[in-house]
Amino acid sequence: YSVPGVAGGNLRVRVRGEGLSQEGSFHFMCRLGTPSSDAMAASVYSGGGSSPSNRTSASAGGGPNASTNGVGGSGDDKNVVTIRHMQTEGKVWLRVTKSFTMGEIKQKLITVLGLPRGSTVRLLQQISGGFTPYPDRQMLLGLTKLNAAGTTWHGVELDASRSTALFRRLAAVVESDDFQAELAQVRKFASQSPVAAWKALEALAVRRLAALLPDFGCEPSGDALRQRVGDARAQSAQRPDLAELVAKVEAIFTLDEASGSGGGGG
Q: Which one is predicted more confidently, 61 or 6?
C-alpha cells in the first residue's frame, strides 16, 4: 500500500493460486480515497496476455485459440472428451457439448463412474512448472483431453443394469432399416473380397455401434465394443432380457448373408 498524498493511495494486490507461475498470476490496482467517479478505477490483467492458457477468457467464451489440447471441430457442437486419471492411468470417454463447463463435466464423470458421495474430482491443466485446476465455470470449448486427480478410479465398470441399457440402444440400431441395408451391402461384397468385407464390417460396427459407447463412459472403438459384448454375455446368465439383446448385437459379426437382423447368433 502506497500513499502518494493525503487524499488517498494505491492498493496493489497480486493473486497467485497454488501451482501458478508468475506469468499466470493476476494483478489488481485500486486507487483509494479519490472522488466517487474514480473510486473503483482498477485495472485487471493477466501476465499471460492472450495465451491460450488464459482461463479467464476461456471461461467467458474464449476465442478460436482458447484450447491447446486438441480441437474436436465437429459441426454439431459435440465432443468426445477423454479423461485420464493421472495416478491410476485409468481413462473415461464422455460425450459432451462444447458449452459444458468443467464443473458439469466433473459431475457427469462422477455419475458415469458411480463414485460414492464425498468423492473429489479435479480436472487439471498443465502450466509451467506443474498443474493447476480448471475453474468450474470454464467451458470445454474444443478440448478433447483432460487430466484428472482426486478420488482414484481405473475406468468404467458397467453392472448388469447399465449393460442392459447400453445393449438396448445397440440392438435398436442393429434392428433399424438403414443399418440392415448397410450390413446387407457389406455381406454381398464378402464373396468378392472377404478381407475387405471384414474391414468394412468393422468400420460399420465402429461408426454405428461403438459410437454410442461414450454415452456410457467407454472408448468408441471396435476393441471396446467387443469387450463390452464379452462382459455383457458373462452378465446375461441370470438376465434373459440382456442375453437376447447381446445375441442381436453379436449376430452382426458374421459375413453370412443368411444371418437375419440379429435375432439370434452366437
A: 6
